[in-house]
Amino acid sequence: MKNKALISVVLVIVLLAIGAGVLFFFRPQFSFFSFRPSQKQPFSFPTEPITLTYWRLFDDEESLTDAISAYRQIHPNVQIIYQKKDYETYQQELDEALRSGNAPDLFMLKHDEIPQYLAYLFPAPSDLSYSQDSKEDFRSQFQNHFVKAASGLIYQNQVYGLPLWMGSLVLFYQPALFQEALKEKTEDLDRQIALTKNEDISRGLEQEKQRVAQLLSHPPRNWTEMIEVTKLLTKKDAQGGIARAAIALGDGQKTLKAFDILSLLMMQNRTTMLSEDKKKAAFHLPIKKSDGTTIYPGTMALDYYTSFARPTKETYTFALDSENSVEAFAQQKAAMLIHYSYYQRVFQKEYPDLQFKIAPLPQIEGVKQRLDYAFYWGEVVSKSSKHPEVAWDFLRFITSDENLPRYTARSQNPSPLLKETQAVASKANSVYLEGSDEADIPTAQAETAANWYQGKNVSEIKAIFQRMIDEVVLNNQSPQAAIEAAASLVTNLIQGGQE
Hints:
The chain is an alpha+beta fold. It has helices at residues 2-25, 65-74, 87-100, 138-145, 175-195, 199-215, 223-233, 258-268, 297-306, 325-330, 343-350, 388-398, 404-411, 418-425, 441-448, 458-473, 479-497; strands spanning 50-56, 78-84, 106-110, 154-155, 158-159, 162-163, 167-173, 235-236, 242-247, 287-288, 294-295, 334-340, 357-359, 372-375, 377-381, 449-450. The chain folds into 3 domains: 1-39, no CATH class; 53-166 and 376-450, D-Maltodextrin-Binding Protein, domain 2 (3-Layer(aba) Sandwich), CATH 3.40.190.10; 170-372 and 456-497, D-Maltodextrin-Binding Protein, domain 2, CATH 3.40.190.10.
């Protein structure tokens, strides 16, 4: 009997071992340790009542009313609580909510801040789709759905946010100040013509009148024209000070968006901002041109940018004792300003009497392909949400081809949809977007907008760029010395902040 009992125990042990081995061998279907399916099951939309809290900035709820109502018609069990937050307190309120685990289900983040918040974010589910018929994964659909700059919301091959709009830098200008400068220059040339008896000199002055009239008839389309227009628009007082600036640009503190503008100039000038592995700064390095000569494109961009605030340069126009760039433009002390297109609404609200227009951002002369600079926010899902899949489904819905145009029309924001931006940009007559309606410029530029990866240290890198600029402007440091010092600091910062 003992032997039979022993044999039975051995048989049971053997059978269990065989069973465990079979389970282990087929582990793609089962988890060996938990005996539960390891593959994610298809998402089944819940039927119980669900409430999603959505924190947003800038827009009133009306901007998404149509989309929210349409979504609730499909999913009446989902309630969206839209809360418009104050920009001044949003960052602190959000950080506290995330740390305490009481974050809203959905909220907004600046696109370049996504890396800092990855631990708090729930990425898009792999089975999310803009089209039921699509065989592409959601990441591929995302890249075909939105403009190129939106890829800043993709990290570690996962989508962490969706854009509702795509901003870019534009050129603000005041036609009245252009006309004022034209009148002054024309009258001065007419006086010179009246005083001369030399026909050759007179003929040259007439040609100069034509050149001035042509340059001041429109905002500069490229950076070479910007130099000439700046010299014509700049007006000095009796003491040699700047009475009228051509453009509020050139330093690191008074020029708002200095980092963005300088980054754009560098990128347009074919500067490589970071090494391929994104571990080192590269914007200070030289490149070889097709003719074999070596140039420093980043340094050239820095020298050009700072020339507008350096008294020793022929393009000096923006005095450092002036108001900041936005105030100088608003007070009609500067004829031009580079800022994001959304500032149109700020000017219209805060300076209703200001007469201004926007123009496409200037490009490198002779460029064959536009390059603009992007800024936008991503709509993201909190990892602490009880229903993250539903939250993502809602974001997918409001950013679809059918619903996103409703939002952009109500909010007057430029679209991030690739199809829409391509359609608008195709109406232009040239790479300078000539012939485009003023209202179409931000959307057309969204197609060609770009940015560069700054890791988890966005604010610190911006501060380094501002100091680099001011070393040149305030301390007369050479642009190459300043840019090499900044590159070293950026490299140390990136390497120190990597995971």
